Every structure is written in structure tokens, then in C-alpha cells.
Amino acid sequence: xxxxxxxxxxxxxxxxxxxxxxxxxxxxxxxxxxxxxxxxxxxxxxxxxxxxxxxxxxxxxxxxxxxxxxxxxxxxxxxxxxxxxxxxxxxxxxxxxxxxxxxxxxxxxxxxxxxxxxxxxxxxxxxxxxxxxxxxxxxxxxxxxxxxxxxxxxxxxxxxxxxxxxxxxxxxxxxxxxxxxxxxxxxxxxxxxxxxxxxxxxxxxxxxxxxxxxxxxxxxxxxxxxxxxxxxxxxxxxxxxxxxxxxxxxxxxxxxxxxxxxxxxxxxxxxxxxxxxxxxxxxxxxxxxxxxxxxxxxxxxxxxxxxxxxxxxxxxxxxxxxxxxxxxxxxxxxxxxxxxxxxxxxxxxxxxxxxxxxxxxxxxxxxxxxxxxxxxxxxxxxxxxxxxxxxxxxxxxxxxxxxxxxxxxxxxxxxxxxxxxxxxxxxxxxxxxxxxxxxxxxxxxxxxxxxxxxxxxxxxxxxxxxxxxxxxxxxxxxxxxxxxxxxxxxxxxxxxxxxxxxxxxxxxxxxxxxxxxxxxxxxxxxxxxxxxxxxxxxxxxxxxxxxxxxxxxxxxxxxxxxxxxxxxxxxxxxxxxxxxxxxxxxxxxxxxxxxxxxxx
Length: 600
Hints:
Blueprint: E1 38-40, E2 47-52, E3 65-74, E4 79-82, H1 83-86, E5 90-93, H2 101-107, E6 115-120, E7 140-154, E8 161-167, E9 180-189, E10 194-197, E11 203-206, H3 215-220, E12 228-233, E13 259-269, E14 271-273, E15 280-286, E16 299-308, E17 313-317, E18 325-328, H4 336-342, E19 350-355, E20 366-367, E21 372-373, E22 379-389, H5 399-418, H6 422-435, H7 447-467, H8 471-484, H9 489-501, H10 505-518, H11 523-568, H12 574-599
Antiparallel strand pairs: 1-2, 2-6, 3-4, 3-5, 3-7, 6-7, 7-8, 8-12, 9-10, 9-11, 9-13, 12-13, 14-15, 15-19, 16-17, 16-18, 16-22, 19-22, 20-21
């Protein structure tokens, strides 16, 4: 919460404004109190009368540090306590027992600058003991003006970092682990000795790299841009029992020191791991005008400056009278890292994109417009999204447009497949199938065309999955085909291929059997059947060897135990020993026989 200006001083606490209405105090489902109206709070016996409405809707909570003026009186009008008489408001933490329970419970219903009269029953007041000026079991009244409060947060839920919010931030977004931060801070010991301070203009760093002490990034993660706080940091989140030596002009920090940190999160630049493997990062310098990103298949117009890590510029587009670059995302018209990053940008956004060689120019030397990009270079683009036109969505199309677009996407996928670009081909097939999904309302004459397109895209998608070793994906797509064409030989064949790769040999055998029932002379299926039998034979041999090895120790232990019994009892219990040995041997034989059956 914001620390409000205390200049407004309501001197007549008892004065009632009949036209005012309190906006924020709501008890259960009751409407807000009107000025002059009284209500019991939560059936507790505590009553509240609104004397003057506050500002806004926010109210403090237990744990917050409030500043109030109050006048405490008995029912006969006698005053027993008054901050007004002392001409100094009182500051305390709600819910810590620093005031009577009734005052705590009443203040959490108040808004900034609100004035209210609380009638407090004995069990929420001074009880049987009373206090100076308050007889035992007395009902008392408090006229309260809520001047301000500071929200208090236990950052780690262990009391190690207490955050008092002095000024709220101006955005409802908190920084993440990758983001670049600009902060200002001043660090003091409890005796007010300054032991660290950021430069006047602040200091920039990445959240993941940390700053000063462990408490700093932990607290910043809970802050919003523009937020100002005071941190009370226990030693375990500061410098522990070691302390810190003197640095620059600042003195040392003694062991086990509690630190007081005035901290401001001036701003932060969001950093996004575009590819999810820390190979392409996008740092947003200027956010776009809206939240809609270009996405895959959009026609984008960008301008950029491209540099090496040492600052050498190797390419520029869209500056000094040169036309900006226009391309279609996800069509390999630019390097992969730039393509994927631009697809996440909004109109008007300006970002720095850092691209590792795997998504850049790889291990080869490349000649660009201005300079050469050496092999295995990390490259940096400062990109601005000038405009983009998103690919038309299926719901924006007529049924005939959907069919035509699906056919075109499928053909694009076929060309990519023939070029060995299986991942991109798979995306094309998926998009094509989406355009003619069951959600469409196609006419009777179109159903056959739609079904043919769907089956073709799913089968081709399954072929891509097999090339990409995505066997579960291939099984899923083939199963879609078989749901509508029970004896589709291609679907059965490709699903059997996938089952063989995942060692589901019995399921592969079933699919091959169905495929041969549908097409007994299919040479490819027959060859697969032969390969499957070979795999099954090898699998059975491995299983037999595995089970044999598992039970070998059991057989050895049985033999040793039998010999031991024979030796110990040979003289006087020879007959009994022979019986025991015979029974043990039977157990061993029985175990071997069982494994042989299981392994077959």
C-alpha cells in the first residue's frame, strides 16, 4: 500500500457527513455501510458506525503496519486514551496484540482516511482485568481515523526477510529469473551505519546473477516495477555468521548482522528463452502496443541491426532509407533463431535477440551485407516489429476456403518431406488437418473430400513422426485414421512399424495380421512380418537368458544348502538327510521348469 500524505487532518471526529457512503467495508454479503449507519461485525459483538468515508476500496490486513489517530472512551463519555491529546498518531502492527482485539478487527475493515466509531465488548476489549481508566468488564468505544498503512510481507515465510511496501509499483507484473533489472538500494546496519549503496542512477543486473546478498533477488521477485520497499533481513539471508569485509568506501559488515535495506525496483526488461534450451534469448527493450503476437505463418515487417558479440555490425535492414525486411515466419526465409523470436513479437515491440550458432549460421563462415560472420558465432539482433499480418484463421474462412487451404498446406508438406525437412512437413500436415477438422460445417458433397484430406494428412504426419523417431506420435496419428478406416493398410503398416520400435511386438503382430487380411499380397507387409518374427525370436532368447540369470543364485544356494545338510547329518541321520536333499532338488527342478515355461 502507498504511504499516504498525512496533511489531511479531520479535527472533529464526531462530525457526520450525511451524504457520504463508505465504498469498501463489506461484511459477508451485506451492502457497504452508509455514513451514520451502524452494523455488528461478524456476529462478534463488535459494532462499527461509519462517520466519514475513506478513499478507494483497499483495506489493511493482519501483519500490516498501520498509522491511526484514535480516541478511547467509556459509554458515559469519559476519555481514557487519546492520540489527539498527545498530538501524535499511533503506529502499530495489526494482529500482533499491540492493541485490543476489537481495534485490530475493526481497523481491517477501514479504507484510507476513513473515520469510524467502534463499540467494543469486554471480551474484545480489556476484559475482566480492565486497565487504568477502564473498569473491569467495560464496554468501550474507539473513534478511529485510519491515516495510512504499510503492507508487510514475510517473503520467505520464515521471518528471514520482512518486506514493508512503502510505495506501490505501477505495473501488475513481477520480474522472472531471466529478466534484466534496474534497482536502487541503500543498506544499513541496525545502528544506521551505511554499509552499501547503489549508484545514484541505479545498478543493472540479471535476476539469475543476484546482487549484494541472497535476500535481494528473493525480495525483488515479489516486487513490481516502480515499487519501493524497506527490507529487514536476518543474517541467514545476508552474510551469515561470516560477515563481509570492508568494500570501497563502505565499512565491514560484522558477523550475524541484521540488515535494513531501502530498495527500489526502478524497472526491468523481460527476458524470454524463446527455444526453451537457452540458445535463443529475447530481451524486450520496448513493449508493443498490444498483446497479440505475430505467431507462425504471419507475414512480418521488421527492421534490425545484426552484430557479433564484439559489436561488429554485419547486417542492417530498414535504416538510412533502405526498405525493412518482410518475410513469412516458419518458412525458413531467415535463420531459425530470428524466425522463432520474431514470431513471439507484438506490433511496435523492440527487442534484443541473442542467438547461438545452432539457431544461427552454424559452424560455417557466412558473408553478409556488411561483414563476415565467422564460424560458430553467437550473433545479436536488435529488432523492431513494424507490422505483421497474421495468417487467416480457419474460423475466418468459408468451408471452400478451408478445403483449398488444407490442400495447399498438404502439398507444401509433401515438398518439405521430399526435401528431408520432416519437422516442418509435420507442422504443415497438422495445419492442413486442422483446417478440415470435425468442427467445420461442410456440405454433403464436401464430406468425401474432407475425409480424404484428413486421412492423407494424418498418414503423412505419421510418416514424418517415424522419420523423427516420434513413435508415439505416429501411433496416435495412425489410430486416428483407423478410427474411420478400419482396414487402411498404410495406417496399419506404419503403426506396426512404430510398435516394433517401441518393442510392443504383440500389438505390431496384430496390425500386420489385419493388414494382410486386407491385402494378402502386399510385399512390404510380408517383409515386415518376416522382420517381426526375427525380432520376436531375439526377444525370446533375451528373456530366457534374463530369467535364467535371475534364478541362477537360487539354484546355487539350494545346492550349497543341500550339501551342508548331508555333511552335518551323515553319521546319525543319513536317511533323513537324503529325504531333505531329494525335496530340495525337487524345488530347484520345479523353479527351472517354471521359468522355462514363462520365458516361452
